[in-house]
Amino acid sequence: MEIAGLGIGVGLFLLFAFALTVFWLWMLIEVITKEPDQGNEKLTWILILVLLGQLGAILYFFIRRPQRITQTGQ
Questions:
Q1: Is the C or the N end of the chain the one with fewer CB within 10 Å?
Q2: How much is the pTM?
Q3: Domain ranges of the chain
Q4: Contact 42, 60 (CB under 8 A)
């Protein structure tokens, strides 16, 4: 019984890790394609995403993305 529970736990962990990786990739593509080119903000967010990984993606999603959508409409 414990081995089956361990397998389910590992499977859920892998699913969660995969989802976070897809989310990180989505945010990286958003920064590259939708951030304005003026200033260093685009480069700064790319570095944050690359260096902080999924945490950087979460920060971008909640901090910068709403501002960008309000400013540029995309």
A1: N
A2: 0.85
A3: 21-72
A4: no
CA separation for the pair 59, 55 (Å, rounded) = 6
CA distance 59 to 38: 21
Alpha carbon 49 to its chain centroid, in Å, reads: 7
Task: Check: CB of residue 34 under 8 Å from CB of residue 72.
Answer: yes
Cα separation, 18 vs 12, in Å, equals: 10
Angstrom distance (rounded) from CA 45 to CA 61:
11
Q: Tell me the pLDDT tens digit for each residue of 18-54.
A: 999 999 999 999 999 999 888 899 999 999 999 999 9
- For residues 54 and 17, what is the distance between their CA atoms, to the nearest angstrom? 10
Contact 64, 71 (CB under 8 A): no
